[in-house]
Write a structure and sequence with these properties.
This protein has about 90 residues and is mainly α. About 80% of the residues lie in helices and about 5% in strands. It is built from 3 helices and 2 strands; from the N terminus they run ααββα. It is elongated, with a radius of gyration of 18 Å. The relative contact order is 0.14.
Length: about 90
């Protein structure tokens, strides 16, 4: 694999990770917190309606978890392309 092809493959994989993770965050924050809030409010979580919880806390927690998932994915990707800092 040439260096230029390797760079393209690396960035293609990186962008694929970003699109997938940001789509998950969008679905959780907008989908669950706004669009499906009325339906989810029929369910309670920790004493709060679930739609309210997703709008106030769930999307933030999801984003933090997705940051750690992204770091793990990028560490594996870096190792696969020989860019690991280890």
């Amino acid at each position: 694999m040439t260096q230029d092809t390797s760079r393209q493959a690396y960035w293609r994989a990186n962008l694929r990770y970003l699109v997938i993770l940001l789509t998950i965050w969008f679905v959780v924050s907008y989908g669950f917190g706004i669009f499906l809030a009325d339906a989810l409010n029929a369910i309670t979580f920790l004493g709060f309606p679930l739609g309210f919880w997703f709008a106030q806390q769930g999307s933030i927690y999801t984003f933090v978890v997705l940051i750690f998932v992204y770091v793990a994915l990028m560490n594996k990707l870096d190792a696969r392309f020989g860019l690991s800092e280890d």
